[in-house]
Every structure is written in C-alpha cells, then in structure tokens.
Amino acid sequence: MLKQNVCILNTGNPTYFHPGTGSLSAIDLSLCHPSLYLDLSWSVHDDLCGSDHYPVLITTTHSYNHDALPSWKLDKADWCTFSEACSEELTIANIEDISIDSFTEKLIAIAENTIPKSKPHKRTVNTVWCNSECKEAIRHRRKAQKRAEISPTAENMEQFRVQRAKCRKTVRTSR
Q: What ranges do the domains of the chain cover?
C-alpha cells in the first residue's frame, strides 16, 4: 500500500457472514487516494440485504448534490451549428494569444448555444414493487440473521438460510 500510495478506509468491522458457520470476518477492503482519505467515512450496513457480505457504506463528509446538476443532451445537439461556430470562434489566429481558460470559456459558450441541457432534478428510486409481503419477508430474514449472529447454532443457521431463500423469492416475484 505504501508503494502504491493508497490508504485503507476499513475500521476493522466485519464485512462477511459465513452462512455455514455463522462466523464473521473482515475480508473486504476499501482503498482510496491519500487526498480523499480525510474526506471519506467508512461503515458497514447492519443488514446483509440477502447476501453473505454486508454492504460497505462510503460517504463523503462534504455535502455535494450531484443529482441536481444538469447534463448535456448530446443526442439533441445541433452539431452543424456547433462545428460552424467552432470554426469561426476557435481559429488559430483567435486562440494563439489566449489562455486555456479563455479557450475553455469560448468552447463552453458555443456548446451552451448549440447543445441543450437536461433540467436538474432529484433521482428517485422506484420501489413500487416493495409491498407489505416483501417488507414482512425482509423483517423475518433480518430477525433470523440477528439470531444466527448472536447464537450460530446449526438450527439458527438453517433457519437463517431458509428465511433468506424465502425473502429472495418473495422480492424477486414482487419485482
């Protein structure tokens, strides 16, 4: 890690639940560049969510709302007008004496006039399929998981596997 200049975000919390024995281990690694290390927070979700690995949650300490940024609609662009404007505005004579920042500003101005942008909006997750039957199956799976973690007896482990399979089937059918 030192040779490659990377930092490890893990805190030592377990990320894997062995479905056969009920043992917990920390086998997943989360690495980042040192410049990001202090800006990130690492944690493990408390539910397996139907897997044998706990989801790892990496969050930033800075608030950044990337959902609200508009994006370029490249399929709706007027490429002929864009090319003509670039040919007129960005000639060698025009750009020899300007900086990269000025060039970038001109190029973005041309793009804004010829390429439409999407309206900023929040992304939403469609969970219409998650009905009361799914919620009940998830509740039973979580209960069996906690019981297996606290007391990993053969009976508790088998009950967890059964509940996990039932939950997967219920959710898959509902979706």
A: 1-65, 70-114, 125-175
- How far is it, in rounded angstroms, from Cα 16 to Cα 28? 8
Using CA atoms, how far apart are residues 73 and 107, in angstroms rounded to an integer? 16
Residues comprising the chain, all counted: 175
Q: Taking every pair of C-alpha atoms in the chain, what is the biggest distance, in angstroms?
A: 80
Cα-based angle 101, 103, 100 (whole degrees, multiple of 5): 40
pLDDT lower than 70: segments of the chain: 64-68, 94-95, 122-127
**0.70 exceeded by pTM:** no
Distances (CA, A) of 174 to 30, 128, 145, 170: 33, 9, 22, 6
Give the model's pLDDT for residue 125: 66
